[in-house]
Amino acid sequence: MDIWSASTSGPPATIFGPYADDTIVPKPMEQALGITPKHGSQVSNSALCGSCHSILLPVFDNAGNPLVVGFIDGQKLTHSYEQTTYFEWTNSIFGTDSLLFGVCQFQKNCD
Description:
Layout: E1 5-6, E2 14-17, H1 27-33, E3 36-39, H2 47-50, E4 55-58, E5 70-72, E6 75-77, E7 79-83, H3 85-90, H4 103-106
Parallel strand pairs: 2-3
Antiparallel strand pairs: 1-2, 4-7, 5-6
């Protein structure tokens, strides 16, 4: 499975992937796109997927005011999950260390 992730905390114009630096041929990407591919161990961790597939958004009424959607320990909640794909996966029978989140997304078949 080839997963590449742009960095928001690394050097500018760097993209991270699952391959060791000594196996990457960087010149085509550098010359064509202006980005340098590098190894990133975070790409092999399914928690990386949760950064995009766990989305908590504020809720507003029609006038643009925060809308209370619930309470936790007496505190008003004005946010709601728009997407919980990663949480659902981690709590399913598929959420094991042996199957990376995204395998089903990036392959044609997932049993």
